[in-house]
Design a protein that fits this description.
The relative contact order is 0.12. 41% of the residues lie in helices and 17% in strands. The chain has 18 helices and 14 strands. Helix 9 crosses helix 15 and helix 12 crosses helix 15 (280-287). The chain has helices at 7-16, 30-34, 48-56, 58-63, 81-90, 111-115, 129-133, 139-144, 159-168, 172-176, 180-202, 210-220, 228-235, 239-251, 280-287, 291-296, 301-317, 365-373; strands at 19-23, 41-44, 69-72, 97-101, 119-123, 224-225, 255-258, 274-277, 324-330, 336-343, 348-353, 378-385, 391-392, 397-401. Strands 9-10-11-12-14-13 form a six-stranded mixed beta sheet, with helices on both faces. A five-stranded parallel beta sheet has the order 2-3-4-1-5. It has a three-stranded antiparallel beta sheet with strand order 6-8-7, with helices on both faces. The protein is an alpha/beta fold.
Length: 409
């Protein structure tokens, strides 16, 4: 079993908050994490008998629970949340309810209102590379520190090792499987279960044939600017249908968008989001990628690497001391920065992702535009690359090995 870096945040939340909601995709370890809580009872709405009782009389169901209690798959019975709200309002003792959801219940009608001010929400993602390695390295905190604090040389990461990390991704079950064929078998069953079960639970749709096609198409455009009209034309589906299906894929944590940074610049900014798959193992399965294909077609590694870095940084944001939001940045004349992190003080860190070993001055153009245009907000810019040297490339500009995401240095 892997130690999860989110566990400390969970313990802190339970010490002063009546209810904690852990959301995330199926099979990322929500139940395993929650069941580490001492003396907590356990119920799951995957059990049809438990679900039936809760739906019949939510108030009686909640009032009869011994606390603390873990309730799994809360999205299957959202009508229980007003009863939990009432229970919490009557008794503000911390750590009573630990809820988990494999669909984003915050997007369901009236749920946010029921939970507001009474529950702390934690997002558990697939395993990060530092969780796989067994450490709590956090690049986000280092990037916002006054001193970026790396030594000059990092352990060399072999190209095939990096590619394998991306191809496997972070689902715990997949990480434990040794062969590509067994990992592919798992992903095939996983996608089928999500689309035929969880999506049906969220909405009655006719498009179970179109949904896998849409997911595969989005995978082929991962790390690119989202163009719903183009996706609509490619699938011969109405734009409203595509948008609805994408919303469902987002709710079950298969895809997510990275919004465009919308701060004040003289340059005209692209406002469309980028689209990402929430795990690069899943992305690789959907694209039919393996080590041989990536080595034969190295151009395929660019978007995969960017998706990988976005995934890793989002995981680290879940337990970093720095509170920050993530964006992408692009001007109408195609100057861009792959990732912008903006902290609560409005300070910006720009991150470019390169899958190669060689970096030159032109690679810093987007970062330099940010630095020149926003001198009081710009903290620093980095390029993550596959080399092993940490080097300064001018004032507040650095090249940083990609394995700084998971190696303590």
């Amino acid at each position: 079993m892997f130690n999860r870096n989110l566990q400390n945040q969970l313990n802190i939340a339970l010490a002063d908050t009546p209810a904690v909601l852990i959301i995330g995709a199926r099979q990322v370890g929500k139940t395993t994490l929650s069941r580490l809580i001492p003396n907590a009872g356990y119920l799951t709405f995957d059990d049809v008998n438990v679900l039936s009782i809760a739906k019949k009389s939510p108030a009686d169901f909640v009032s009869n629970l011994s606390k603390p209690v873990i309730i799994d798959e809360i999205q299957l019975c959202p009508e229980i949340l007003p009863a939990i709200k009432q229970s919490v309002d009557n008794n503000r003792v911390a750590g009573q309810f630990i809820l988990t959801g494999s669909a984003n219940v915050l997007t369901l009608p009236k749920v946010s209102e029921s939970l507001a001010g009474r529950v702390e929400i934690l997002t558990l993602r697939t395993l990060s590379q530092n969780e796989i390695e067994g450490n709590e390295t956090n690049l986000v905190d280092k990037l916002f520190a006054d001193d970026i604090g790396f030594s000059t040389n990092f352990t060399v990461i072999e190209r095939d090792d990096l590619l394998n990390r991306m191809l496997i991704g972070g689902y715990p079950e997949v990480v434990s499987r040794k062969s590509e064929s067994r990992r592919n078998d798992w992903f095939q069953s996983y996608i089928t279960t999500i689309l035929q079960r969880d999506v049906r639970d969220l909405a009655n749709i006719e498009g179970l044939i179109e949904m896998p096609r849409l997911l595969s198409l989005l995978a082929s455009r991962a790390a690119g600017i989202l163009n719903v009209a183009e996706v609509s034309r490619s699938l011969a589906l109405p734009q409203m249908t595509v948008s609805r299906y994408m919303s469902l894929l987002d709710k079950v944590f298969l895809i997510e968008s990275l919004p465009a940074w919308s701060g004040s610049l003289k340059s005209r900014l692209v406002k469309a989001p980028k689209i990402f798959i929430t795990d690069t193992g899943l992305l690789s399965y959907l694209q039919g990628l393996n080590l041989k294909k990536l080595n034969n077609e190295p151009t395929l590694t660019g978007s995969l690497t960017e998706n990988f870095v976005v995934n890793e940084l989002k995981k680290q944001l879940g337990w970093s001391e720095t509170r920050a939001e993530m964006f992408h940045f692009r001007t109408s004349n195609d100057k861009e920065v792959d990732i912008i992190l903006e902290n609560t003080a409005g300070k910006l860190v720009g991150i470019e992702v390169k899958s190669g070993l060689t970096i030159n001055k032109n690679d810093f153009k987007g970062l330099e535009l940010l630095a020149d245009s926003l001198p009081t907000k710009f903290k620093r810019g980095i390029i993550l690359y596959t080399g092993n040297q940490f080097l300064s490339f001018g004032k507040d500009m650095f090249i940083v090995p990609i394995n700084a995401l998971w190696l303590e240095n």
